[in-house]
Design goal:
This protein has 426 residues and is of the alpha/beta class. It folds into 3 domains: 166 residues, FAD/NAD(P)-binding domain; 117 residues, FAD/NAD(P)-binding domain, CATH 3.50.50; 87 residues, Enolase-like, domain 1 (2-Layer Sandwich). The chain contains 8 helices and 27 strands. The chain has a 5-stranded parallel beta sheet, covered by helices on one side. A 5-stranded parallel beta sheet has the order 11-18-12-13-14, with helices on one face. A 5-stranded antiparallel beta sheet has the order 21-22-25-24-23, with helices on both faces. Strand 15 and strand 16 form a beta hairpin. This is Nitrate reductase, NADH oxidase subunit. InterPro entries: FAD-bd_OxRdtase (IPR050260), FAD/NAD-bd_sf (IPR036188), FAD/NAD-binding_dom (IPR023753), FAD/NAD-linked_Rdtase_dimer_sf (IPR016156), Rubredoxin_C (IPR041575).
């Protein structure tokens, strides 16, 4: 049972007699969807969700808070009164600092111990601040991972004149898009030769780069940051590059990757590797009754994957066998500065054994990479109407070499048929 304590938290000693007691750690995509799935399969069980966050919010749209399109409340992706509706007890603003799998318990940062029968770890990841001189010690250096980051960026960016974003991946471009209309001088520093190198080829990336430059963003490619120059109070003054150039900045937004939140697992029987916690297709760790999902594994850092992993893990925790094997993990959709794009898989040919077909029509751009009739990657930019067909081709493993028409002219009728009994087949 859960007994309310004087400090407003809950002391969990296990479920009511004969009922399962579940604990979920983390209130983002994997944790929220995992908790909801647990309730759907377990109508009377005790379900406790513990989170360091005091709000539920989507990290994917934090830039909408920066640009003013959404309030903090608008970032919440759950239904109204989610925790009451699903009878989930929420311990918010508390961090799990230790887990004892053998004792089926976790310890919070206030010393409280909570017992569980099965637990889902969905603690996500944190922003990685690279080891550049002065960067980790300076004030006004922040990632864009948590709501606190977005609050800090909005506060500081409205007071300064020069802002540098480190890293041209999805989070870095989110940061640029979120503050591009602020009255600031905005610069991007990227080691690679383009933005979004994992999602876009040179042509598709260049279209976004032109849009950013048209909005006054100073783009720096193929360079490294060597030192953050700070004043006597450790406030940023300029960022020095390996070329010797110094870019003025009073705020640095570091978007150079994330690291899984697994510190509380140190010294336990839950095995981790360099990416994060190791899980199988059922979301199980190698510790009994300990499951994990989302960015804590460090392997598929996109929202839909975290949602699916949370659902799969919770299903197996409930005795409903399910496997993580029916999604395309490298799908990305984006729409920066009014230009929508979808990319899947590899975006450049790994070698000459692969073939590619490209179609450019005005503002629309399509590219497919395939080998032996199997599609390994694609980019669609501008008109995304072909995205549904393309996704289905990949999902159903359609051999495109058997389609006797240009790839970009394929429609569902080319691979979607009805049997005599009216059953749909591919």
């Amino acid at each position: 049972m859960c007994s309310k304590m004087s400090n407003g938290s809950f002391n969990i000693r296990g479920g009511r007699r004969g009922l399962m007691a579940y604990v979920v750690v983390g209130a983002s995509a994997a944790g929220i969807n995992g908790a909801r799935t647990l309730r759907e399969y377990n109508k009377d069980a005790e379900i406790i969700l513990i989170s360091k966050d005091e709000h539920v919010y989507s990290r994917c749209i934090l830039h909408h808070y920066l640009d003013g399109r959404r309030t903090v409340e608008d970032l919440d992706f759950t239904p109204r009164e989610f925790f009451d509706k699903y009878n989930i007890k929420w311990i918010k603003g508390k961090e799990v600092t230790k887990i004892k799998p053998e004792e089926h318990s976790v310890t919070l940062d206030d010393g409280q111990e909570i017992k569980y029968e099965k637990i889902l770890l969905a603690t996500g990841a944190y922003s990685f601040i690279p080891p550049i001189e002065n960067l980790r010690e300076a004030n006004n250096v922040v990632g864009l991972r948590d709501l606190e980051d977005a609050l800090k960026i909005k506060e500081v960016a409205n007071k300064v004149k020069n802002v540098v974003v480190l890293g041209g991946g999805l989070v870095g471009i989110d940061a640029l898009a979120g503050i591009i209309d602020y009255d600031i001088n905005l610069s991007l520093v990227e080691m690679g030769d383009r933005i979004l190198p994992l999602q876009l080829d040179k042509y598709a990336a260049n279209r976004y780069e032109r849009l950013l430059e048209d909005r006054g963003v100073n783009l720096k490619f193929g360079v490294k940051a060597e030192k953050l120059i700070v004043d006597d109070n450790k406030n940023p003054v300029a960022l020095r590059l390996n070329t010797g150039e110094e870019i003025p900045c009073e705020l640095v937004i570091a978007c150079t990757g994330v690291r899984s939140n697994v510190k509380f697992l140190e010294g336990t029987s839950v095995t981790c590797d360099k990416f994060g916690v190791i899980i199988n297709e059922k979301g199980e760790t190698d510790a009994k009754d300990v499951y994990a999902a989302g960015d804590i594994s460090g392997r598929n850092p996109i929202w839909p994957t975290a949602v699916k992993e949370g659902i799969i893990a919770a299903s197996n925790m409930s005795g409903k066998v399910a496997f993580m094997n029916d999604f395309f993990g490298s799908k990305n959709t984006m729409s920066f500065l009014g230009l929508p794009t979808m990319s899947l898989g590899v975006v450049n040919k790994p070698d000459d054994s692969y073939e590619e077909v490209i179609d450019k029509n005005g503002d629309d751009y399509k590219k497919i990479i395939y080998k032996d009739g199997c599609i390994y990657g694609a980019i669609i930019q501008g008109d995304l109407s072909y995205a549904g067909v393309l996704t289905q081709l990949i999902k159903e493993n359609i051999n495109v070499s058997k389609v006797k028409k240009p790839l970009f002219d394929i429609d569902y009728s080319d691979f979607f048929n009805i049997k005599e009994n009216l059953e749909f087949v591919y």
